[in-house]
Amino acid sequence: MKEKLKTKKRIIYILINGTFIFLIAISVIYIIDFFSLKKEAMEESNLLNTIKINENEIIQTETRDTKAISKGAERIMKIKKLQKENPDIIGWIEIENTNINYPVLQGTDNEYYMTHNYKKEKSKKGSIFLTKDYDWNIPSTNLLIYGHNLRNGTMFEELLEYENEEFYKEHPIIRFTTAEEDAEYVIISVFKSRVYYKYEKNVFRYYYFVNAKTQEEYNEFIGNAKKASLYNIEETAVFGDQLITLSTCSYHTEDGRFVVVGRKM
């Protein structure tokens, strides 16, 4: 009887210790993964600064007394250099004084860059990417851009800070640079949403809006975005204005999304 009791205690001891070791191992893996992804994302966010541009390559603008290098032109030239590495790099997005400072990719589908970085390497953090449906030949009305919400504070995680109106007031501008222009977008709406089921009617599927075929369609999107906004923003948009929409996952509900919409200045 005593021997059976000892055996049972030994088994329990082994199970407890095994579970403890397993949890430690999982925690270590999680911590390593957490910081490796953060390091990768931070290196990517600093990529633009590492690219060297010869002054002869940069468009120069005349001032009264001296020639000043256009910072916008410098960014444009850097995008062109990045495109030689990967033509899928269509631009660079930045929100000043935040961690959002990354290349933007566009693939032939909306899946590839969810799991690959700008070098086309497998990566859990993926990339910031523009919807495949955006047509640069038109160009389309709305730059619909997606990014993961990583809990280490990188990629589009900081978008969630816009739930706080004070954060919006301190960061009202989105900068988006392509090989053609360096543009700024003023934020006009911040809202929470989700991916809706097909059977749901009369809901705001913001993720379907890329190119407005009519003024009515454009105005409907702006109206819905303003109505859904978490707080009042005076800035708005009128038909013909280029838009940018940033979207990331949010956990306020199942398949939740957090969205920031801006108008080109």
Give the topology, please.
Elements: H1 2-45, H2 47-50, E1 60-62, E2 67-69, H3 71-85, E3 89-94, E4 101-105, E5 128-130, E6 142-146, H4 165-170, E7 173-177, E8 182-194, H5 215-228, E9 243-250, E10 256-264
Parallel strand pairs: 4-5, 6-9
Antiparallel strand pairs: 1-2, 3-4, 3-7, 5-6, 7-8, 8-10, 9-10
Chain oligomer state: single chain
Overall average residue pLDDT: 86
Number of strands: 10
What proportion of the residues is helical, as a percent range? 25-40%
The major pleated sheet works out as: 8 strands, mixed, barrel
Distance between the termini: 83 Å
Task: Compute the CA-based radius of gyration.
Answer: 23 Å
- Portion in strands: 15-25%
The number of helical segments is: 5
Structural class comes to: alpha+beta
Report strand order across the widest sheet: 3-4-5-6-9-10-8-7
Topology as H/E string?
A: HHEEHEEEEHEEHEE
Task: Tell me the overall shape.
Answer: globular
Question: What is the compact description of this entry?
Answer:
With 265 residues, this protein is of the alpha+beta class.
How would you sum up this structure, described in words?
The chain is of the alpha+beta class. Helix content is 31%, strand content 23%. An eight-stranded mixed beta barrel has the order 3-4-5-6-9-10-8-7. The protein has a two-stranded antiparallel sheet with strand order 1-2. It is globular and about 85 Å long. The relative contact order is 0.12. Mean pLDDT is 86; it is low at 25-33 and 59-68.
